[in-house]
Amino acid sequence: MPNGITIQKHGGVSFPILTEPIDEVMVIERATSFTKRSIKKQSKLDALYKCIEMIDLTTLEGADTVGKVKQLCTKARFPVTSEFAEELARYKNFQPIPSVAAVCVYPSMVATAREALKGTKIRVASVATAFPAGQVPLKTRLKDVKDAVSAGADEIDMVINRGAFLAGDFQTVYDEIIQVKEVCGSAHLKVILETGELATFDNVRLASEIAMEAGGDFIKTSTGKVAPAATMPVTLVMLQAILDFYDRTGKIIGMKPAGGIRNAKQAVHYLCMVNEVMGSMWLTPELFRFGASSLLNDILKQIYKQFTGRYAYDKSFSLD
Amino acid sequence: MAGLNDSNLQIAKTIKLYINGAFPRTESGRSFPLHKFNSKKIYANLCRASRKDLRNAVAAAKSAQSGWCNRSAYNRAQILYRMAEMTEGKRNEFVETFVQTLGYSPERANLEVDRAIDALVYYAGFADKYQQLIGAVNPVSGPHHNFTTPEPVGVVGLLCREEFDFSHMIAQIAAITCPGNSLVILLAEEGAAVLAPLAEVFATSDLPDGVINLLSGFTSELYEHMAGHMELDSICFDGKNEKIRARIKEEAIHNLKRAIVKPQPDFTLEHILAFVEYKTVWHPIGF
Amino acid sequence: MAQIKNTNNVKINSDFKFEYAPAPEATDMVKIKKQNKLFINGKWVSGKNNQFFDSINPATGEKLAEITEASPDDVDRAVKAARKAYTGQWSQFSGKERSRYLFRIARIIQERSRELAVLETMDNGKPIKESRDFDVPLVAAHFFYYAGWADKLDYLFNGKSVRSLGVAGQIIPWNFPLLMASWKIAPALAAGNCVVLKPAETTSLSALLLAEIIEESGLPPGVVNIITGAGATGAALVNHPDVNKIAFTGSTEVGKIIARSTVASQKKLTLELGGKSAHIVYEDAAIEQAVEAVVNGIYFNQGHVCCAGSRLLVEESIAKVFVHKLKRRMRSLRVGDPMDKNTDIGAINSKNELDKIKKLIAQAQIEGNEYFEPELTSIPEKGYYIKPCFFNNVASSANICRREVFGPVLAIQTFRTPAEAISKANDTPYGLAAGIWSEKGAKIHKTAQALKAGVIWANTYNKFDPASPFGGYNESGWGREGGRHGLLPYVEVK
Hints:
heterotrimer, A: TIM Barrel, two-stranded antiparallel sheet, 10 strands, globular, C: Aldehyde Dehydrogenase, Chain A, domain 1, 2 domains, 17% strand
């Protein structure tokens, strides 16, 4: 990692990017420690409900259709069938299953999702900037963002220019985020670092700093199209960057691990991590999201088990 | 001029101490005579080192130790080898000393010098090898590089055997200094005359000042103070006297200095290893 | 509703409190006998004087069991059994045979790992996650490691053959009861010695369970004898004329007493004693991970660790930030019931130790040192608990900076140059361990070279492995345990 990175703001003022070296082995050790937490009973239920509220329910396939996105939006509004809800309602202390935080789709599907989610608090997020590679001219990427915003996206998930980053051209990475942010207007900006391509934790930390300095509202691990996607250690490094940035600037930035979080147990471990590193006040959809698709059903299964004592089968839940 | 050759008029040597590369007299102003073998004639007067001399010698050894162990092993080897060469150069003086004060035959005296030279050469060659024989890279479970290296124990006090044994003493000196220890030596009374040629060897072998310090005096007067000295990291006495051994072990406990009271065989790795500590370093393996 | 103050106008109203419900490990698979006998010559025998003392669960202060106080006669019986087993059998066995027994013991330890972990936590007070994930797996690993050495001793010492010593008397502390038993027994047996082992009086139970496992393994009677008792029992073992080797882990104070009592004998002696190990954090360190290592270094096992990083030396330029982050991290430590799977810091092993720690903390406060403990952390009312804490800006001459506390108490100092860091780190009669944090390789190596300590953890801390030698310089002891070097104190070169 180069020393003394400075970035020029628009208008020519330079400022240093403060970053920190990361020891890979110890980060993995600490992240692993959260997977040893044993979350039981009411605290498990609380955590599972909270997880649902923080999900960006996602479909990002070439095969996505209007029909598929509509179905996903229904699932986002009503994660469980009424039959399921009625069964669980018989149990003491059952609380209605909340809806997810957002639905995340390609720009071409934003209008469909917007329509399907009308009248709900569920937000529409869209991956813009020529997701997932971002390898088109900036002009085209900005147009992509503009289209998504005007189609009604509340949130834009952009990808950073990994090519520029790995070539050491941090100024370009910064400038592009600034420009995307401008185009976003009032839409929230999540900056995807694509940590799987950044290869080292030092890079993840540096990219996090650049993304936050450039005005990202959230930083996000991955597109889900590159392995490895979100991991606990990578998320830990980003959370610590967020905390340091908050200490330094008073600005509060959100975190979104995406890709690879498929079951409730994993999600609860993430919650433990946020809880212990940041404090439980950070466990809110304004500050933490899971980018996931199959996670929701696994959480529902676990909720079913918590109330009934029986393991649910897949048929209890709609596929999407 | 003939009168000066008359033994009655010869100037008796006064052999001084060797501390920090210099030849001071004892601060105590005391001396003791060393007689020629089976004779009432004085061979030389020797300084009777005091506790304060001991303290000075330890201080010198202490300040010289880190510089000595930070020399490259190759350089320490060169200096030990140089000591062998200088011993060869002073062969006649050593022989004369042994013949005169210990009653050795010239043959035996020469053999002693031969063996001493052998020991210096042997340990010179070990200075850059013993680490490879006893060091280790340890296969720990997990992403860590883990290695163990021997390091000199530090400052060593050497009380020589009551019965003077020159070549063994040189082997001890070589084995102890080879890994980077510094030394304070109290010579056995009966062989203390060797201090003169030996100090000259050390003084002319590029050995840094203070690495080896030589004291003459009475073991009975000084050994407990040496064993109890808190700045010494190790104390060695492999003489026969059980009482002295036990007292040394006991006094050593004040700072848990390593008390080496079992004779270490000459020309072995084990002899060096009696004067090393093992340091194990862990470091993560990651990007 | 709580608000997180921020300058970028994010509205956060979150009153979600993520409290972890109690998650106690089940204890029903552990059967504790009301009265416990001695394991001598492969049999469970009563003490000659029929005297007992109580073993207390430090998490509750309640009595767990009665333990036999072995008398000098009992010690003599045990040593005789070991001698008989040594001359009659064990020393005649081939390395391969010895090896097989050790492998078998290792395997049974793995199979009964849950039981061992739960019992260890009940008797010692350490968090179940540590006994489960650290102590017991390492115990098995130790037996596995040395099992493999038993038939390879010809390769141990550079082409020279070695021989065993005879009967080893081994005395272990209460901080890692089982682990210390394995550190002692496994290399001794691999090298061909027989053993009389005495656990610490507050933590006898897991050693007695280990005796059961040894019995189950079919090891010939007398090869390992486990006798319980306090200082007097230990003294009888140390002073027994037919013991060839004493291995002790414990305080420097007791180590010196033991050393004194073996002065007139030919007994070989190894000592693993105390420490006041320094943890150096340079300004170019990976700060977050260094904080983690410092926390692990001093609060692991309630700070009952001889190599605990009890002195933090942090470079002045980052001291403020570092202490800020350290405080934040300490606030997330969970102190409480050691049997709860989410507990990070369990109970102090005994009332006696707790009082000692409290006294040292109180004294350091009176002396005007800057004290910190996590404000909101609560501790159970029953049982022996204390909050993790540190003293900041401590003078090198302060008692808290020099004396081993053996508890979760850290002393923090700053430095300005590497040379100052090194000289402060070495400014102690001890020399067990040290930590270094820097991202600069050359600096790590130079610092590691200059530190007078037997174990250097660079960019990590409190790592242990059966293959890695462990032991201290100066007043931290004599000899090494672990690795190839850990066998050397149990053999003589022929």
